């Protein structure tokens, strides 16, 4: 990957300064403050949902290879802008809280906007070229209220693993996720988990941005007691 790298941050942090997720993201940003960063706040620019008209336009253009008339193209303009923004970045970081065992709908709408056949994955409609995101990296940062202390709580499987699957599907080479669990638990557990997650986040940033003084200290932590996870795909 050539230098300078461009980093795209996608965030959905509605609780703003009170947010646990923001602490993870802030830690990452502190480590990379010298690099080229673009930020998309999904609360400022809400992604389009796939509704009947834009879905049809997407299928006609990206899957069937049809040429759209300008009014139909217009239906896809926000999705196209977001997809182009994603394509322009070497590293993407997505940060959001877990809601109801999954990613918030607004974050899923962002994935639905940017995952375009022939643009961010798969073959171009003219069949000439496969889209490649090889060499690119993606990190997902999530916090949630509970912990998985006996393996019966499967929410994380639908949250961070979904985000990881989406980036893998788009062919990203290095796909990772950090989940800070137990944010609704007693203060001691919350702080312990948050600190571990922040350490993991900083380690990934140092590894990816090759800060010489740290030299790849990324550790896959799985603390059985307080259940704090790092995922590496
Ligand atoms: C609407 C809503 C749904 C939530 N659903 C879950 C859930 O399914 N599992 C869980 O462990 N925590 C859940 N939580 C707790 C949050 O994920 C947790 O408090 C998180 O740290 C909030 O992130 P924030 O501080 O960045 O806002 C939910 C919170 C809200 C507001």
Total number of distinct structural domains:
1
Order of strands across the main sheet: 2-1-3-4-5-6
**Helix count, per DSSP?**
7
Please outline the major beta sheet: 6 strands, mixed
Strand content: 15-25%
Q: What does it look like?
A:
The protein is α/β, with parallel strands linked by helices. It has a single domain, classed as Flavodoxin domain (Rossmann fold). It has helices at 20-31, 52-63, 70-75, 77-87, 105-114, 155-169, 187-208; strands at 6-11, 36-41, 91-97, 137-143, 174-180, 229-232. A six-stranded mixed beta sheet has the order 2-1-3-4-5-6, with helices on both faces. Helix 1 packs parallel to helix 7 and helix 4 (77-87) crosses helix 5 (105-114). 37% of the residues are buried. Residues 212-227 have low confidence and may be disordered. The structure holds flavin mononucleotide. Flavin mononucleotide binds next to helix 1.
């Amino acid at each position: 990957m050539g230098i300078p790298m461009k980093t795209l941050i996608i965030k959905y942090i509605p609780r703003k300064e009170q947010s646990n997720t923001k602490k993870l993201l802030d830690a990452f940003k502190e480590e990379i403050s010298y690099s080229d960063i673009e930020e998309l706040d999904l609360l400022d620019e809400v992604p389009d949902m796939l509704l009947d008209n834009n879905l049809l336009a997407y299928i006609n253009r990206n899957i069937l290879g049809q040429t759209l008339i300008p009014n139909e193209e217009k239906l896809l303009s926000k999705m196209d802008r977001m997809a182009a923004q994603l394509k322009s970045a070497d590293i993407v970081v997505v940060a959001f809280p877990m809601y109801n065992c999954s990613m918030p709908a607004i974050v899923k709408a962002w994935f639905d906007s940017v995952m375009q056949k022939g643009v961010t994955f798969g073959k171009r409609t003219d069949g000439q070229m496969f889209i490649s995101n090889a060499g690119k990296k993606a990190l997902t940062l999530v916090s949630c209220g509970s912990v998985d202390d006996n393996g019966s709580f499967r929410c994380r499987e639908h949250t961070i693993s979904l985000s990881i699957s989406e980036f893998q599907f788009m062919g990203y080479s290095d796909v990772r996720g950090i989940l800070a669990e137990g944010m609704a638990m007693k203060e001691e557990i919350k702080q312990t988990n948050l600190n571990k997650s922040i350490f993991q986040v900083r380690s990934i940033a140092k590894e990816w941005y090759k800060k010489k003084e740290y030299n790849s200290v990324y550790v896959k932590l799985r603390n059985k007691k307080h259940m704090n996870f790092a995922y590496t795909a």
